[in-house]
Amino acid sequence: MEGPAILVEALRDATIKDKYGNRWQYHSRSDRHSKVACWGIGLDLLTKSALLRRHVADGKVILGVNHTMRDFGTGRKKDLDLVLARPDGEPDRRVTFGQLAERYTIPLTSAQRAMLDALPELPVAPVGAVLVALEAKATMTAHIRALPRLYDELNSSHLCVHGASRQALAIGFAIINASSRFASSDMNKFDLTSANRVFTEEPQPRSLVRTLEKLVEMPRRSNTRETGFDGVGVVVIDGANGGSPFKLVTAPPAPQPGEPFHYDGMITRMANEYDTSFSSI
Predict the structure, then answer these.
(1) C-alpha gyration radius of the chain
(2) Which of 46, 62, 107, 127 could link 87 by a cystine bridge, Cβ 3.0 to 4.6 Å?
(3) How far apart are CA 69 and CA 81, in angstroms?
């Protein structure tokens, strides 16, 4: 699976500029990290599911970005990072999944580029019926204080997705930073060429463990009569946001192969659920 490696590589360079002229690898007011994360999930899901690839090649499935879904029962709305859906009309194919890699400045290895090139062209187009909806959230510092927000924002996404369609598959994805220090853009609202970067300290691994424990409480469902996510994945990274590369953390307490929320298991489950749920479209 390539998604986690793509994510940390995309965080290597400081590409996000703030109003003070500073450049950041990660900025809390930018959604680049969630877009990159969801793009990587899309690449892995397309690679894993032959049925999804055939649906894309046949023009039955398109991609929606920042798609607004509305809960039919409550009227509540939520913007989802990325959705796979039936097309609403004829796609114009002016923007494709592959072109989003350039738009989001996603660095790809030659092997990853070959994987992308082997896929059928997936157009970004007006969304009809949603089949798969992805929502990604990150917590980089102040983990304990951010737990209610992280939980509520993820939890509200599956409620909205299934309020719109019980048949749609909802995927929740969390990025958790394991670093013991972090330079938040909110704590550095000044020109960093004239002052030192401010880092906050994070009690690790306690904060990471507590965040993982909270995410385990996230509701999941095994059939359309239940409430919860159809798939949940967690990737743990380590980065201080000070210019040094972010790293992927695979050792415990990060989810291990075969455990709930392990990235590879999430992709395998979602590919199987797609193949089972949408074989007849």
Answers:
(1) 19
(2) 62
(3) 11
**161-210 pLDDT, tens digit each:** 999 999 999 999 999 999 999 999 999 999 999 999 999 999 999 999 99
Closest CA to 173 of 88, 236, 105, 244: 236
Dihedral (Cα; 61, 62, 68, 71), 10-degree rounding? 0
Domain ranges of the chain: 3-277
Task: Tell me if 71 sits within 8 A of 159, measured CB to CB.
Answer: yes
Cα 187 from Cα 24, distance rounded (Å): 13
Nearest by Cα to 218 from 162, 147, 112, 276? 147
Q: Percent of the chain beyond pLDDT 90?
A: 90
The C-alpha atoms of residue 154 and residue 173 are separated, in whole angstroms, by 8
Angle at 42 between CA 245 and CA 95, to 5 degrees: 100
- The structure's pTM equals 0.95
